[in-house]
Amino acid sequence: MSFMKLKAISTPLTVINFINNNNKKSGQWWQSLHRTMLRGVLGKTFRLVGYTIQYGCIAHCAFEYVGGVVMCSGPSMEPTIQNSDIVFAENLSRHFYGIQRGDIVIAKSPSDPKSNICKRVIGLEGDKILTSSPSDFFKSHNYVPTGHVWLEGDNLQNSTDSRYYGPIPYGLIRGRIFFKIWPLSDFGFLRDSPNGHRFSDD
Amino acid sequence: MAQSQGWVRRYAKAFCKGFFVAVPVAVTFLDRVACVARVEGASMQPSLNPGGSQSSDVVLLNHWKVRNFEVQRGDIVSLVSPKNPEQKIIKRVIALEGDIVKTMGHKNRYVKVPRGHIWVEGDHHGHSFDSNSFGPVSLGLLHAHATHILWPPERWQKLESVLPPERLPVQREEE
Fold it and tell me: Which of B87, B115, B138, B142 to mutate against chain A (most A CBs within 10 Å)?
């Protein structure tokens, strides 16, 4: 009976001891788990940040020096480019100063540097531009100053362009649009201006 | 023989990997964060290049500060020249959009700076090709903000954004 009593007393004690020991061990176990998890998470975060920076830099170089995909909005280039068309723009011509008359370019808006405009180059520096409408009796001309270009949208009735804000500096041009990707019904290189040539070289 | 070939291939692989990481990061840094440039010409004397052609100042150009096209009156900025897109010019911002400036040598006596444009002038009036010649410039041509002179060492300094008092705009845009 006394033996049974002893056992009865010792069993809860051993159980308590067992639980205590396990708690200590499990506490250490949790600590080490946390440490490795933290190190793993930190490592993964650093690697993610590193990859983001690397791919961001490659994207910047690609768009700045080669070209990229652009979505155009607005009616000023209809029918050549409709609203919400997706086109491909290349930036090599801008860097090598190879923009020519008749090219469609993306440029920074002269009155809002954060927004872009998409127009056709009608005249380069030194060109004489006919600025009066065909119905006017007296024709007026404008000469494009050095370092500037004259832009006009294809949709002459619905386009604010150089006829409104004058010639813009060449430095505002970001790239040249030469290929339409979407909609697929209009896939391919872009057409010439539907308005004919409205400039004369002297 | 096989070992030296393996070494060459491993080196070439490591080189390509490093190249495609280092070059875009460096180019992006120089385009978007900061770069260094030598100032030529006398249009910003005495702030920059006081020694004339003997010693050209080298300035630190900060692209990050102008990434949202925010400049203050008095800042020294570099921009793409509106007359020659291959060239960059460095001038001081005199007036922001909406200000009315009293010009020195422009065809109009008073000019109101249009929206999205700034009026820049060199400190050396009369020897400077600036807005008095080509009018207000579009903010889209802004390239960087010159913040410090780095060379020669005796001219190490932070460039202050001060407007010369005689060039204050006649009327400022109300905030």
Answer: B138
